[in-house]
Specification:
One of its GO terms (molecular function) is cysteine-type deubiquitinase activity. Keywords: Cytoplasm, Hydrolase. This is CYLD hydrolase. There is one protein chain. The strands form 3 sheets. The chain has a 3-stranded antiparallel beta sheet. Strands 1-2 form a two-stranded parallel sheet. It has helices at residues 11-18, 32-44, 46-59, 63-73, 84-96, 110-121, 158-168, and strands at 24-25, 81-82, 128-132, 138-140, 143-144, 171-173, 182-183. 36% of the residues lie in helices and 8% in strands. By secondary structure, it is mainly alpha-helical. It has 2 domains: 11-122, Cysteine proteinases (Cathepsin B, Chain A), CATH 3.90.70.10; 128-223, no CATH class. The longest helix has 14 residues, at 46-59. It is built from 7 helices and 7 strands, in the order H-E-H-H-H-E-H-H-E-E-E-H-E-E. The relative contact order is 0.11.
Length: 228
Amino acid sequence: QVPDSFPPLRNEAAARVLRGRMKGIQGHCNSCYMDATLFRLYCNLSIINKKMKRDFTRACSDRTKSNGFKRRLLFVSRTGFVRARSVMHLREQLTDKGQCSSFTNAEKDPEEFLNLIMHQILGIEPLLRLQSGGQKEQDCYCYQIFMDKQEDLVVPDVQQLVERSFLSSDLKLVEIPSCFIIQMPRFGKEYKMFSKIIPSLELDITDLLLDSPRECCVCGNVATLECS
């Protein structure tokens, strides 16, 4: 049983609850994509909890069903451990709601799962607004990094990957996002683009924002031209 309101853990409190054996989410039957996504979203992203409380009742007309989903998603208990069976209950509910039947046994794309949870179940508005090459704006819940192999990047950090991916795709953020969820470059068992990626504890999006005033690297005044 999880209380209706349980804010994300911080610093030493998070370390005490979430470190050690039998902590986190127990994996089972290709659940890794879901385990990692759920843990990241509901363990320490306070913005998601706030949005879920605000938008949740608008998502489902059946209050009993909506509360059932809410209890399953607000899974971070005081023990810091979630059994595989609890996640399987969620996967079975997704199937019962008329979604793809393979949610209970197959590995799915994290973005597909995220869109399902955010949009169709929780009714949360898109978190990102992107624009590519002056084209029409696109709304989405997360950004997946796409880029070609670059020999000068051996062990990159997230800041480098995001900047180069935006540059290669000619993308800009239309506004500062309330929450910036990023999916790392995809890879399979036979090929990994990067053996390791260093997490950036802070992300500077100054150069990723559309029509944002920036400093000229030559004179230090407000820039009037942008060179890729």
